[in-house]
Amino acid sequence: MQDVAAFLGFVAGTLTTISFVPQLVKVYQSKSAKDISYRMFIIFILGVMIWISYGILIKELPIIVTNSVTLVVAVAILTLKVRYDRV
What we know:
Low-confidence stretches: none
Shape: elongated
Number of helices: 4
Radius of gyration: 15 Å
CATH class: Mainly Alpha
Number of strands: 0
Largest sheet: none
Order of helices and strands: HHHH
Mean pLDDT: 93
Structural class: mainly alpha
CATH topology: Monooxygenase
Strand content: under 5%
């Protein structure tokens, strides 16, 4: 049963992580992130960091791995927003 739970955790985490990839691609291609909220992404990134910490504390690899990838994607979007807002 633990293998099923881990599998479901990885599937859920992967789906929620890849949901941000189209946004990242759109921002990169359009060179614009004017409709993205700084507050929302900063709050989201803090939440993801807490999820990673929680995953580490309870030693759950699906939580740690998928949220770590989500953090990278979210930081990339926020970085592009900062870059394109300055142009």
